[in-house]
Amino acid sequence: MPQRLIRKLEHFTRLSDADKDALNGLGRKVRLCEAGTDIIREGDTPENVNLFLDGWAYRYKQLEDGRRQIVAFFVPGDLCDLHVFVFREMDHAIAAITPVRLAVIPREHLLNLMDRHPRVTRALWWETLVNAAIQREWTFNLGRRTALERLAHLFCEVFLRLRAVGLTEGNTCPFPVTQVELADATGLTSVHVNRTLREMRASGLIVFKGRQFTVPDFLALRKVALFNPNYLHLDHEGAYLNANA
Length: 245
Hints:
Blueprint: H1 3-9, H2 17-24, E1 30-33, E2 38-40, E3 48-54, E4 57-62, E5 68-74, E6 79-80, E7 93-96, E8 100-106, H3 107-116, H4 118-144, H5 147-164, E9 172-174, H6 179-186, H7 190-202, E10 207-209, E11 212-214, H8 218-225
Antiparallel strand pairs: 1-8, 2-7, 3-6, 3-8, 4-5, 4-7, 9-11, 10-11
Helix pairs in contact: 3-4, 5-7, 5-8, 6-7
């Protein structure tokens, strides 16, 4: 069930029971994808919207010679391009980092839900705009931040996104991303990423254990990253639309 999506949307506004019931209905058709496989390929014709119920993935572009740029990470509760079905073909690909469980939402089902539940529609607009804000921040990250700032910024962002959907425990969260994937997301070489991560560990900014990381002092990590969380818009900007107001 898409409880993590509901939890995320309620960072924008409080939804009614009817709104939540409608969103819960999105989880009826489920698709499973293995780690390392493409969920959707560049050139495919998109017909449905995918909601991540479990697992991690990334959006990427790749050149013919194999060079790859990761432009987004997906975590549970994320929708994969709300209006993607208006395109004739995909201009990028999405690959699973871990085993992934998706709710496959037919176009007609989603459009019907949005027609019947205007508060949900506005919350989904918010989700789309936040994704665009994250993309802007990633572009700025690549163009202006140092290697240390880029990685620290990414860790801050991931931690807050996971906390928003209830996937952190204290100051620890899952992180199944490899150093190669980190390099492709931050425009660095894997050697540079490895060296920078060693520097961060030695400074006590971050602790890795298995496929998770811990942030001993989030304010210290935020200071190093020059991180301003305002682009995540997690402060209930749609409070005036509260279903229970």
